[in-house]
Design a protein that fits this description.
Helices cover 36% and strands 23% of the residues. The protein is elongated and about 105 Å long. It is of the alpha/beta class. Helix 6 links the parallel strand 8 and strand 9. The structure holds guanosine-5'-diphosphate (GDP). The site of guanosine-5'-diphosphate has 15 residues, from helix 3.
Length: 509
């Protein structure tokens, strides 16, 4: 009986509260049954919660129309393996650097910004698309605005191309297609584009609304056109954000860098991030110490749509995909973190508790089925009882049980725990020698008219613990002469049973 070893603390409390039985008694009773009692940890929610909802920092409501300003689109690149995603990212990165002054020393920080000739910017995520993207969506953070689907002109749509299309659809993010490797002699861009039709992606050149740009990532051909296409798509989507209010951002990468410590790459979603800002993300916080771009260059500020690497995290790092929110003060940040840690623990405790309850439920079902079967066979658990019954049966086979006074009860309790406790105590009685005592039926919940019938048929009394019989049941019981006894204290119920039994025992000579 595994479940007995995990005593329900709620039950323990409720019994203890009655002041009739102390916890020790119950533990002893269980121990007497041959089990090692162990009281399971109760979930935090049952105790006074340490987490105060007001302490958390939540995302701000959407900005008003007047506050919104255009921001760079955030783009992620997807497609089948070897179709040229990495090469395209490198080419895009370089397209920026040749124009810039940083000598091509780029760091891989998970995101980078590309400035076009007219000064407009595009932010590219260079983390492998799916995972980071999915994490963001599930954590309420902002992911990419659009996807560049890379399709090799010499290969067409392949398995991962299909997956990427599926993924973008689910995330409700539009596609711009880059038909890549158009420099190859065996390239057939038209065939590659046609292979997209079966997925309802209709290129503009075929009368549809999906921009397909023929490029060579390796040779850098037509990359300008691809960037233009991205900005056109961004314009159609009217991608905007407010630079006002507290900063919100998404974590793209979180890692520890030698010499700098814990760093994260963020893409700002709203507000303007500056050094010294206090940020909360996941269950940790940060006072921004350094702010750099993908070239390691210090940044003074980062507005919406801008990728930035920051340091200054206390304790832990947040996870990629976490939503970062600025706090008004370090005090508010630490409170929010404490709140989140408490919530996390609570969730975990609830989950653990759920598992314990489920185990207990299964064990209990088996146990009840077992017991009911044993009861129906008239077999008792107590070893002394079993021996006596056995001997009696042999000696007085013909006489049956008629020589003994009978007592039958039907037991109904409020919860399984009390049922268990009462049954355990009942089983420890060894009066079967002189008295034929049987629990005809036991269960959790109030008695029904059927129970009254059963009690009548078997000559049983109904014992209720911590529950009431409704009027119909009471009337029926009265009419059929079935006694209903009601108790709220286990030991009183047990005493009453003892008294009843004693009254029925023949006087000893
Ligand atoms: P990924 O797996 O999608 O990231 O693909 P890669 O960028 O690693 O490219 C796979 C191979 O295709 C590499 O050998 C690239 O050099 C090559 N490749 C990528 N783009 C082009 C292109 O535009 N033209 C040609 N000829 N080869 C390319």
């Amino acid at each position: 009986t595994d479940f007995l070893t995990d005593l329900n603390p709620k039950l323990l409390d409720s019994i203890v509260e009655e002041r009739a039985i102390d916890q020790e008694f119950i533990l002893k009773a269980v121990a007497g049954f041959g089990c090692k009692p162990r009281v399971a940890m109760r979930p935090a929610s049952n105790r006074k919660s340490q987490a105060d909802d007001d302490d958390d920092i939540l995302p701000q409501p959407p900005a008003s129309e007047a506050e919104l300003a255009k921001r760079p689109p955030v783009v992620t690149i997807m497609g089948h393996v070897d179709h040229g995603k990495t090469t395209l990212l490198d080419t895009l990165r370089k397209s920026n650097i040749t124009a810039g002054e940083f000598g091509g020393i780029t760091q891989h920080i998970g995101a980078f910004s590309v400035a076009l000739k007219d000064g407009r910017k595009v932010t590219f995520l260079d983390t492998p698309g799916h995972a980071a993207f999915a994490a963001m969506r599930s954590r309420g953070a902002h992911g990419a605005d659009l996807v560049i689907l890379v399709v090799a002109a010499d290969d067409g749509v392949k398995e991962q191309t299909k997956q990427s299309i599926e993924f973008a659809r689910q995330a409700n993010v539009p596609l711009v297609v880059a038909i890549n490797k158009c420099d190859k002699p065996q390239a057939d861009p038209t065939r590659a584009m046609r292979s997209l039709l079966q997925f309802n992606i209709v290129p503009e050149s075929m009368g549809g609304d999906v921009q397909c740009i023929q490029v060579s990532a390796l040779q850098g051909t037509n990359i300008d056109a691809l960037q233009e296409a991205i900005l056109t798509q961004a314009d159609i989507m009217n991608i905007r954000a407010t630079p006002k209010g507290r900063v919100e951002a998404s974590v793209i990468e979180a890692t520890t860098v030698h010499g700098i410590g814990k760093v994260t790459t963020l893409v700002v979603a709203r507000g303007i991030l500056r050094k010294g800002a206090v940020l909360v993300g996941g269950a940790t916080w940060c006072k921004v110490r350094t702010m750099t771009d993908e070239n390691g260059k210090e940044m003074r500020e980062a507005g919406p749509g801008t990728p930035v690497r920051i340091s200054g995290w206390r304790d832990d790092l947040p996870n990629p995909g976490d939503l970062i929110i600025e706090a008004e003060s370090t005090d508010k940040a630490t409170k929010a973190v404490a709140y989140r840690v408490a919530k996390e623990m609570e969730t975990k405790a609830k989950k653990d508790w759920g598992e314990i309850e489920e185990k207990r439920r299964v064990a209990r079902e088996e146990y009840v089925a077992n017991r009911k079967e044993l009861y129906s066979k008239g077999i008792r658990f107590n070893s002394t009882i079993r021996r006596i019954v056995h001997k009696k049966n042999r000696l007085t086979k013909d006489l049956g049980d008629d020589t003994k006074p009978k007592m039958r009860i039907l037991l109904r309790t409020d919860v399984e725990g009390t049922l268990e406790a009462i049954l355990t105590v009942i089983e420890s009685y060894s009066c079967q020698e002189e008295c034929d005592f049987q629990v005809v039926d036991f269960n959790v919940g109030p008695p029904t008219p059927t129970d009254v019938e059963l009690a009548k048929e078997t000559g049983a009394m109904i014992y209720l613990f911590n529950i009431d019989a409704n009027k119909a049941v009471k009337t029926e019981a009265e009419q059929s002469g079935v006694q209903i006894h009601h108790y709220n204290v286990i030991y009183r119920l047990v005493e009453a049973l003892k008294d009843e039994l004693s009254a029925r025992l023949p006087l000893k000579e």
